[in-house]
UniProtKB/TrEMBL annotation:
Its EC number is 7.3.2.7. Transmembrane segments: none annotated. NCBIfam families: GET3_arsA_TRC40. The lineage of its organism: Bacteria, Pseudomonadati, Pseudomonadota, Gammaproteobacteria, Pseudomonadales. Belongs to the arsA ATPase family. This is arsenite-transporting ATPase.
Length: 326
């Protein structure tokens, strides 16, 4: 059964190369889990959202009901980046002197398209979903093709280190400005802060900045802890029995290991049935050759092979039947 792969984990990510069946398999598992009595949230982090097509309905940034016990959510990268940058801009305005307002705006305009920005924003939303989804027994993430997801999984560590660095730098700056202040009581050391024309004391501002940095740090640290706790979180790699998906799976596994994300298992999707003749038998044999390489490298991982269905898998009933056939 497909559900055996995830045992009692609460957070499950599905990743793998483009087109191998991540959306189909994650949705089938979500439907099966909901049928087994769990309250399930299915979340797409793929910018090219396909959940809506699969369930034949509009799914957005707030959960909608897809089946009894199953809600769906599509995290919108554009909206996520906008929200994320607004928050960062507000924070920067509190940190920077008034005369640098032009610089802040220029920096933020450039940041919008900076490499990694979508991932950072997406990660913040994932952290929020995990934080806020306490009403669900299972959260299933359907992710974008491999490279994107591997970077995403490595990010909590980087973001924690980054906010840590900022906090330390603030500490140093605090000590420095305390010395300056004591040397130079009459001159105004710090300029007035952007958006901060009120009479806020230096201490108020400092504690606000510190609270903000600490909240971010906690959020990323919380997600990092959740991701690296294998009783709670697992990653399922979906692949096809072809050369490149096999190679990419081996690589993705190594990257996930490095990010301390436990791989719960492998799903080899779209396998040709056994016992075919002629061309199809040759092709099936070719699949076995590719899977031997997988077996050599990742034999220790639980593996499920799913057959190529004769018809498209679309809608809740088809997903239920698809999940039940394994
Ligand atoms: N076992 C299967 N049998 C038949 N068709 C399948 C099977 N698994 C997936 N498909 C079909 O293959 C196509 C790609 O599947 P899916 O969208 O789930 O892949 P994906 O990995 O999520 O793709 P992307 O990387 O674009 O997000 C879809 O048309 C889907 O219906
Ligand atoms: Mg998909």
């Amino acid at each position: 059964m497909l559900l055996d792969l995830i045992t009692n984990r609460r957070i499950v990510f599905f990743g793998g190369k483009g087109g191998v069946g991540k959306t189909t398999v994650s949705a089938a598992l979500a439907v099966a889990a909901a049928d087994s009595g769990k309250k399930v949230l299915l979340v797409s982090t793929d910018p090219a959202h396909n959940l809506g097509h699969l369930f034949n309905r509009k799914i957005g940034a707030t959960p909608v009901k897809l089946a009894p016990g199953l809600d769906g959510l599509e995290l919108d990268p554009e909206q996520t980046v906008r929200q994320h940058l607004d928050e960062v801009t507000r924070a920067l305005r509190k940190l920077m002197p008034v005369h640098l307002s032009g610089e802040v705006d220029k920096h933020m305009a450039l940041s919008r398209d900076a490499p990694g920005m979508q991932e950072a924003a997406m990660l913040e939303r994932i952290a929020e979903v995990v934080e806020q989804a306490s009403g669900y027994d299972l959260i299933v993430f359907d992710t974008a093709p491999s490279g994107h997801t591997a970077r995403l999984m490595a990010l909590p560590e980087m973001m924690s280190a980054w906010t840590d660095g900022l906090i330390k730098r603030r500490d140093k700056a605090d000590r420095f400005s305390a010395v300056l202040n004591s040397l130079n009581r009459d001159t105004s050391v710090g300029d007035k802060m952007l958006g901060d024309e009120s009479d806020d004391s230096e201490e108020d501002r400092e504690s606000r900045i510190r609270r903000l940095l600490n909240r971010r740090k906690q959020r990323f640290a919380g997600l990092r802890d959740a991701l690296s706790d294998q009783r709670q979180t697992g990653f399922v790699i979906v692949l096809a029995a072809e050369r490149l998906p096999v190679l990419e799976t081996i690589e993705l596994y190594a990257q996930l290991q490095q990010s301390r994300v436990d791989v719960a298992g492998l799903v080899v999707n779209k396998r040709l049935p056994d016992g075919m003749l002629g061309f199809l038998a040759d092709r099936r044999e070719q699949e076995d050759i590719h899977l031997q390489m997988l077996q050599e490298k990742l034999a220790h991982l639980p593996r499920k092979d799913l057959q190529l269905a004769a018809h498209d898998v679309l809608g809740v009933d088809a997903l239920r039947a698809f999940a039940a056939s394994f």
